[in-house]
């Protein structure tokens, strides 16, 4: 059974930081590109950042410089360090695992990030 379990969301003031974590089980972590997506109320889900097994990362323009994605294959965990948070970063953040061979996608249940004073 595949599980992606996110943690680290919460309420933070503008300009603050949060670190999200997503731990995977039931998959061979090293053959998956890992990503973070987010969905704000009334908006479509969008890619925030992704990282390949080789460490190549990709970011949405809106979060470049502020957010950093990283992964630990030993811990089957992907992280998203979010700095200089803005109210427009408020959303449910979802972890995604994309099998590089089969194309199968797996999703976590999401963690809510609220940026507000």
Report on the structure:
This protein has 117 residues and is mostly beta strands. The chain has strands spanning 3-7, 10-12, 18-25, 32-39, 46-51, 57-59, 67-72, 77-82, 91-99, 105-107, 111-115. Strands 2, 4, 5, 6, 9, 10 and 11 form a seven-stranded mixed sheet that branches. Strands 1-3-8-7 form a four-stranded antiparallel sheet, with no helix packed on it. Strand 4 (32-39) and strand 5 (46-51) form a beta hairpin. It is globular and about 40 Å long. The model has no long low-confidence stretch (mean pLDDT 97).
Annotation, overall tally of beta strands:
11
So how many helices?
0
- Give the uncertain stretches in residue-range form: none
Structural class per helix/strand content?
mainly beta
The run of helices and strands is EEEEEEEEEEE
Question: How would you characterize the largest beta sheet?
Answer: 7 strands, mixed
Global morphology: globular
Task: Give the amount of beta strand, in percent.
Answer: over 45%
Question: Termini distance?
Answer: 40 Å
Overall pLDDT confidence? 97
What is the percent of helical residues?
Answer: under 10%
Radius of gyration: 13 Å
């Amino acid at each position: 059974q595949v599980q992606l379990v996110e943690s680290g969301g919460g309420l933070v003031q503008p300009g603050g930081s949060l670190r999200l974590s997503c731990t995977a089980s039931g998959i061979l972590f090293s053959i998956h590109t890992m990503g973070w997506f987010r969905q704000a109320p009334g908006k479509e889900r969008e890619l925030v950042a992704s990282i390949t097994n080789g460490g190549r990362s990709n970011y949405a323009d809106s979060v470049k410089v502020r957010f950093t994605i990283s992964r630990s294959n030993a811990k089957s965990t992907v992280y998203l360090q979010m700095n200089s948070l803005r109210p427009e970063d408020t959303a449910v953040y979802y972890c995604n695992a994309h099998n590089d061979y089969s194309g199968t996608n797996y999703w976590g249940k999401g963690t809510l990030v609220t940026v507000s004073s």
